[in-house]
Design brief:
288 residues, mainly beta, nine-stranded antiparallel sheet, 1 helix
């Protein structure tokens, strides 16, 4: 059984590694329709307002048994499910997503499924309703940024999925010290206890043979090597309860870790963007 994630989040004032902060606006909106056009369409038809981003917008399943890969992404661009092999679900419900920050202490928007603030309603481009690829575009409610997420079709052979994120400066001034974070709480195997490790380009959680059955792992990898990035492991309690899920910097754990309950993150330092300028980075979630 996967556990329910606490939604308590408190403001932090310590910046670690990249950028962190306090969200600057308070708009939470979620859609009530499922557009199928190839043109971007707004998702505001129902007028519903929610802090939960758990409606599946795209899903994928291929293979059986040890060769199975299943994945789901929400209407806000959160990874809801990563299952491989069959029966081994790594994603914790409503516990994966993104944050966009500047100036060390300013969070322009964050959305990790169960907690979100600062992003407006999504627009979609989805050639096949309910399927990958899926493009989700959102603007921060302060009018500063646009974030576009492109979820590629999962690779059934390599058991991974690639995500491309593009940040655009919508303002009339140059914006400095921009950070974009991707993070999530994951439980590899049937229990919440895993080990964590990282390199300069990737971070992962895994179970050794004999600790959980079957043993396995999930990796989050930075694919844009020329842009500075920071892969980190952090305690699940810091991420979920203390509130680092709401910003771009963690309280990093020393790796490799002992067995415990952890979240993982990759944060990109995008530097500055001139008015109208965009920068793009890529990430990958994959079985290991």
């Amino acid at each position: 059984m996967k556990r329910t994630i606490p939604l308590l989040a408190t403001t932090m004032t310590l910046a670690v590694l990249v950028f962190g902060g306090v969200a600057v606006s308070q708009q939470r909106q979620e859609e009530g329709s499922t557009p199928s056009s190839q043109s971007p369409t707004s998702d505001k038809s129902s007028g519903d307002v929610s802090i939960q981003s758990t409606t599946t917008k795209a899903s994928f399943a291929s293979g059986t048994g040890a060769n199975f890969l299943g994945g789901k992404v929400s209407n806000h661009g959160n990874l809801l499910s990563f299952e491989s092999p069959a029966g081994q679900e790594a994603a914790v419900p409503a516990a994966e997503g993104y944050a966009l920050c500047t100036d060390t202490f300013t969070v322009h928007g964050h959305d990790t499924g169960g907690v979100e603030e600062g992003f407006g309603p999504p627009k979609f481009k989805q050639p096949n309703p309910g399927k990958f690829p899926l493009t989700i575009t959102r603007k921060t409610t302060d009018g500063e940024f646009q974030l576009k997420q492109v979820w590629s079709k999962p690779d059934a052979t390599e058991k991974d999925v690639t995500l491309t994120m593009t940040v655009k400066n919508l303002s009339n001034a140059t914006i400095f010290d921009i950070a974009l974070s991707r993070s999530g709480d994951f439980d590899v195997g049937p229990g919440a206890t895993d080990q964590g490790a990282r390199t300069d380009d990737s971070v992962w959680l895994w179970d050794e043979p004999g600790t959980d059955n079957p043993a396995g792992g999930l990796m989050l990898k930075a694919l844009t090597f020329g842009t500075p990035h920071s892969p980190r492991i952090e305690a699940q309690s810091d991420w979920a309860t203390t509130g680092t899920r709401q910003r771009c910097s963690p309280f990093p754990a020393t790796t490799p870790t002992a067995r415990g309950d952890f979240a993982m993150r990759v944060a990109y330092n995008l530097g500055f963007l001139s008015p109208g300028q965009s920068k793009t980075v890529k990430l990958e979630y994959g079985r290991m």
